[in-house]
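Weekly structure sync, notes
Attendees: PL (lead), two postdocs, one rotation student
Agenda item 3: pending single-chain targets
PL asked that the sequence for the first pending target be pasted directly into the notes so everyone works from the same version. It is reproduced below exactly as submitted, 146 residues in total.
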Amino acid sequence: MRQTSQAGFTLIETCIALVLIMIISSGVLPLFVYAVKYNSAAAIRAEALAIAQRKLEQLRASPFTSCTSSPNEVVTVGSTTTGSLTYTVDVIVTPVSSSLKNIQIVVTPQGRSTTGPVYSGKEAWMRGQVIIYTERTTLAVGPNLG
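Predicted structure, written out during the meeting:
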């Protein structure tokens, strides 16, 4: 009779390997959940910032006299099939003088327009408001012209 050597894993070695993989994956899984949650919150804040910048450009393009406050403007971004997000845009214009106005643009993310939770509660800080402050002045001839 010839003896052949058989190589392979025993049942105990396989069980130990499975336990090690389970321990490692249970340590990595919370990190993955954390990353997904904060990436989605960052996308919401980035979209809110883009909306605020668009509103700021609209105000810059309009005449100085038509630059007025506009509370509770609703902006919806995204498609209705994949889920869209709704933002509330508040523009607060404060006249400082006849040629200077302070402008504050506040963009607040709201709940999903189709289905989904409202962005509030203990994690609302992740999806908080984006606020832009700026000043607007009239065009005037300076003292060095001439």
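Discussion points:
- Residues 112-116 have pLDDT under 50 and may be disordered.
- The chain is about 35% helix and 30% strand.
Action: rotation student to compare against the earlier draft before next sync.
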